[in-house]
Amino acid sequence: SQTIHQWPATLVQPVGSPLSLECTVEGTSNPNLYWYRQAAGRGLQLLFYSVGIGQISSEVPQNLSASRPQDRQFILSSKKLLLSDSGFYLCACERQGSLRNEQFFGPGTRLTVL
Amino acid sequence: AQSVSQHNHHVILSEAASLELGCNYSYGGTVNLFWYVQYPGQHLQLLLKYFSGDPLVKGIKGFEAEFIKSKFSFNLRKPSVQWSDTAEYFCAVNSNRDDKIIFGKGTRLHILP
Q1: pLDDT band at residue B107 under the 50/70/90 scheme
Q2: Measured distance CA(B42)–CA(A106) in Å, rounded
Q3: Residue with more model confidence, B67 or B29
Q4: Is A46's Cβ below 8 Å from some Cβ in B?
């Protein structure tokens, strides 16, 4: 079964600084990968998803970006963080080709922008 | 566009009470439906799912959900809750043609011992 690693677990960054959150997946190949932001009262907001290396779909216009340099690596980035970027970021994966669309979630990264 | 509505943002119940969390979705085609749960300090995990067949779906820990197509609903139920059911519950929907799952805003369930 797949395992999802997210790094770092927590992060405190000043406004205007860059960001790089990493997600790596084990136990599956060619998965669909997702970045979500979880905020209290707002549920899970899909930010980006990727169906393959170099393929990124953006769901919400903002100052964040995503990249998928390797099959099982998904990176969330920003050149300049805003206060509103604070939140809990979750990476998820889904087996490619599966009709079941069950997603498996990582432990998350708590980002605080000061 | 697909959307998911969870009517209750915060529910407080006593142990042994019956539970029903509402979920309605907006999508005209064939859908797959999910309930995810996040226990305090743990990962988000799948509670149950519906793809086809019997509209009454049984999940882990005594939970069940019923898909009512005419009402675009997929309510989560449990006849007798326990303190350990305290968690946040998310309803989600997608279609077989879509790579995305759309989540509701979540319902925080607090069970009083």
Answers
A1: very high
A2: 10
A3: B67
A4: yes
